[in-house]
Design a protein that fits this description.
Elements (H helix, E strand, L loop, with lengths): L1 E6 L3 E7 L2 E9 L3 H14 L5 E8 L5 E4 L10 H10 L5 E8 L6 H20 L1 E14 L4 H8 L5 E7 L3 E8 L3 H11 L5 E13 L4
Antiparallel strand pairs: 1-7, 2-3, 3-6, 4-5, 4-6, 7-9, 7-10, 8-9
Amino acid sequence: MLLYRSLYGYGEAEYVIQKSRFIAQAMPVETYDEAKAFVMKVKEKYRDATHNVPAIITGPGQEVQWASDDGEPSGTSGLPVLKMIAGEGLTNLAVVITRYFGGIKLGTGGLARAYTAAARLGIEAAGRCDVMESSLLRYEFEYSFLSKLQNLAADGKFELTDPEYSDVVRAQIRCLSENESEIRSLMTNLTSGQARILSEEKGIIRIRTDRG
């Protein structure tokens, strides 16, 4: 099940216009507090910059939205970036655009375009993804089934992670929640019912959507 659309990972990009440098950093987050911490980290890193303009959206339905112009003329930087992100249907992310002023004024329209262009580059560097609900099933099974499971995992239907080797194998299977029943049946059939579930929980998985 699709939970929301967000960024695949951290991204950074630079945009230069009229001698002003715009450095965009974009990061996926889970909470507003995590987003604010990222903003503060960037501001500390670039504390010598002219401006550090942040934009944050969190919540599956984009419930929390916040931006700041950080000293730029009102409505020329943070708000245009926020509107662009919201318009693309993205959430649970923070973007900070750092500006080093080059001595040439861009005007209000020019500022909005420059900040938005830089933010887009940062988002492209981070990559877009669908955040899906996943199932995490930890199994215990005999060694004789390990190679078959590894071959099946290579097909991409599920991931086999965190193996522990003792008298038996213990490993975690991660799959899309919508495929959980199929994976459970596969494990039962493959091991003739010998595989045993040790634990089960829900999580998320990021599936990148901007690569062919």
